[in-house]
Design a protein that fits this description.
The complex is a heterodimer of chains A (241) and B (233). By secondary structure, chain A is mainly alpha-helical. In chain A, 79% of the residues lie in helices and 0% in strands. The longest helix of chain B is centred in the last third of the chain and has 16 residues. Classes of the chains: A mainly alpha (241), B alpha/beta (233).
Chain lengths: 241, 233
């Protein structure tokens, strides 16, 4: 636990030394939500798409940040050094998860505030649930990012995982066309993807229509997080060839 | 270390390497680039997948859990976080090793970095970054310190300083294993291991190397040794 906190503190200290990244992480989601609100000014669509965007950002941003940060650890030799020390893999992973989840919550607070007070989004449901889903969403991005970093050798490769893993999930999530309207096979795939459930759960939380489907969506996301973390931790090897 | 073989892909990187090391000395691991020095050091730390043979360190198999506090390791590239200050880097690794904050100041002093403590690692020169990496390897006073090419790319004055520091450390009873491809550095060690193409050419004191080959400098001694080994299959 002490080492998990030390790792989270270290990751946050690294982020703190990079004010431009902080600014981009915190401001860009709000700007994009603002742009979408503006695009849909004369239609009722923003009340549907707004919450989906709030679900999208913690996932995408944390995926990118984690995949690059852990790739750097692998390449710079710091990971090799840490694993020759008494640091458990779980402490390393949860250190990262803790640090970036905190950043994601701050990011979501700003994005939600902006969506409500500037863009006029109406949140009927519970704020706590909204943040719980956003945090879960960030964890999903973190765990998939950790996994992706294991399959990339360079920064160029790892950023290519973003379109490969994120855009299909976005397309099949039901934002563009509701999942019921998709061809059968795509609907089935979309129903299993974690981002679909993240968007569903966040929309329920925002609309105040929380029911057993919301709970099962959160369970699906949690299962994806667990699976990605297991695969990710298998790739942290103390001994390498 | 007994009959160690390491394969990476198809290449046999280390071929039947065997030796024993005693504490309180500086052991130089010398050989040209690509001779398997880093692989050998990683085998001692326990980070290397080995094909056959055994490596025991302080009576335990290399990489054993109980050794993670007792073996300090400095990787070839300075493995530090660029976006943290010198002190933050060292303090983080100290926490992972369960060391008190006072230990951070001790290694900062020992590596002459106290004046640079608040600078970001990315703004440091190569030599300073190496010293941060060295400081981390010294945390918690490990019994064995493995240093992979710590002096590469440093100016001669800094190199001499570092070697003086290594002597001080060895005098406190540490076992230092230092790799280098600069043959002149052999003379500064108590004992040298000569590695070429994954094979151990010999383990001897620098004086014995010079004497046995009759060469006038370590570079020529190495060449003479290779020639001599080549003649006896």
């Amino acid at each position: 636990m002490k080492r998990t906190l030390a790792t989270a503190g270290r990751v946050l200290a690294q982020v703190r030394h990079d004010p431009r990244t902080i600014a981009l992480m915190l401001i860009v989601p709000s700007l994009l939500i603002g742009l979408i609100a503006w695009i849909f000014t004369d239609t009722p669509a923003f009340s549907r798409i707004g919450p989906a965007m709030i679900a999208l950002f913690p996932f995408v941003v944390m995926f990118l940040v984690t995949s690059i940060a852990t790739l750097r650890e692998r390449r710079s030799g710091t990971l090799e050094r840490l694993l020759s020390m008494p640091l458990a893999k779980g402490e390393f992973i949860f250190g990262y998860a803790l640090a970036f989840t905190l950043v994601a919550i701050l990011q979501t607070m700003i994005a939600v505030s902006f969506a409500i007070w500037v863009c006029g989004l109406e949140i009927e449901g519970s704020f706590w649930l909204l943040f719980a889903v956003a945090a879960l969403d960030a964890l999903l991005g973190i765990s998939l990012g950790l996994m992706a970093s294991a399959f990339a050798r360079t920064e160029f490769q790892v950023v290519q995982f973003m379109p490969a893993l994120v855009i299909p999930q976005f397309l099949l999530s039901g934002i563009i066309l509701t999942r019921e309207q998709l061809p059968g096979a795509l609907e089935a795939i979309g129903d299993w993807l974690p981002l679909s459930h993240a968007i569903d759960a966040l929309s329920d939380a925002a609309a105040g229509t929380v029911d057993s489907a919301t709970a099962s969506s959160m369970l699906v996301i949690a299962a994806w997080i667990a699976a990605a973390l297991i695969v990710g931790s298998l790739t942290l090897r103390r001994r390498t060839a | 270390m007994q009959r160690l073989d390491v394969r990476r892909g198809r290449a046999l990187v280390l071929d039947h390497v065997e030796f024993q090391l005693a504490p309180g000395r500086i052991i130089g691991l010398l050989g040209p680039s690509g001779s398997g020095k880093s692989t050998l050091l990683r085998s001692i730390v326990g980070n290397q997948v080995i094909s056959s043979g055994t490596v025991s360190v302080l009576g335990k198999p290399a990489g054993h859990k109980s050794l993670r506090n007792r073996v300090g390791y400095m990787t070839q590239a300075a493995s530090v976080y660029d976006d943290l200050s010198v002190r933050q880097n060292i303090a983080y690794f100290a926490k992972i090793l369960g060391q008190p904050p006072a230990e951070v100041d001790r290694v900062l002093e020992a590596t002459d970095l106290a004046d640079q403590a608040s600078r970001l690692a990315m703004g440091l020169s190569g030599g300073q970054r190496n010293r941060v990496s060295l400081a981390i390897a010294l945390l918690g006073s490990p019994e064995i310190v493995i240093l992979d090419e710590p002096t590469v790319g440093l100016d001669p004055v800094l190199r001499a300083d570092l070697w003086a520091m290594f002597s001080q450390l060895a005098a406190t009873g540490l076992c230092l294993v230092v790799s280098s491809h600069v043959m002149d550095e052999a003379m500064r060690c108590d004992e040298i291991l000569l590695l070429r193409e994954g094979k151990l050419l010999g383990q001897m004191s620098p004086a014995a190397l010079m004497e046995s080959t009759g060469a006038d400098n370590p570079e020529n001694a190495f060449v003479a040794l290779i020639a001599a080994k080549g003649n006896q299959p």
